[in-house]
Amino acid sequence: MSGEHSRSLSPFHRDPSPPSPEPPDDLVLTLDDETEDLLDSQAELVLVGRVLESKSYRQQAVTDALVFAWNLIREIQITPMAHHQFIFQFNHLLDVQNVLDGGPWAVTANLLILEPWNTTDRWDFTHVDFWVHFKGIPPELLHLELGFQLRKKLGSPKSVMLIQGSRASSPQAFLRCRISMDIRKPLKDTL
């Protein structure tokens, strides 16, 4: 089409300055101007996702599994892009918030990293919010303040909960923390 051009989106480019070499073609997403303008105008209703493939999966599994798991209020449009990336266009802000708060999500045992649409058209797909349980803490130390301190050791803290109750007639108490973790770093199994 005459006069039409597209913008390349690199999901791995972090900082627009200083200039870096162009990413390989297999890591570049291309959107036409009309699609990009639509997504920019509805930015708060759009998430961009990338499936970290460790097992093979079908693209249809992304739609089938996630729509069922997310239990959305309104319909969603899922657009597959190149290299395990997808655009999720929601029709209700509450759906977006529930999906972000309910994660992490997986597609056939492959981690799905979600990031909000942004007008810079850059996503690094390096951080995921995880729920971390801290168990085996002596009862006298089991306070929210300890949770605030522990979560900072693992990543960027989001929230902390003190869970107390019983399961199978056995008392339980632990800290549950929501932490944004850099998936490029190895997980810690002890602190």
List the helices and strands and how they pair.
Elements: E1 6-9, E2 29-32, H1 33-41, E3 46-52, H2 59-70, E4 77-80, E5 85-89, H3 93-102, E6 105-107, E7 110-116, E8 127-134, H4 144-154, E9 156-167, E10 170-182
Antiparallel strand pairs: 1-2, 3-5, 3-7, 4-5, 6-7, 8-10, 9-10
Task: Give your account of this protein's structure.
By secondary structure, this protein is of the alpha+beta class. It folds into two domains: 6-125, Alpha-Beta Plaits, CATH 3.30.70.330; 128-182. Helices cover 22% and strands 35% of the residues. It has helices at 33-41, 59-70, 93-102, 144-154; strands at 6-9, 29-32, 46-52, 77-80, 85-89, 105-107, 110-116, 127-134, 156-167, 170-182. The strands form three sheets. Strands 4-5-3-7-6 form a five-stranded antiparallel sheet. It has a three-stranded antiparallel sheet with strand order 8-10-9, with helices on one face. A hairpin with a 2-residue loop joins strand 9 and strand 10. The radius of gyration is 20 Å and the shape is elongated. Residues 1-21 and 23-27 have low confidence and may be disordered.
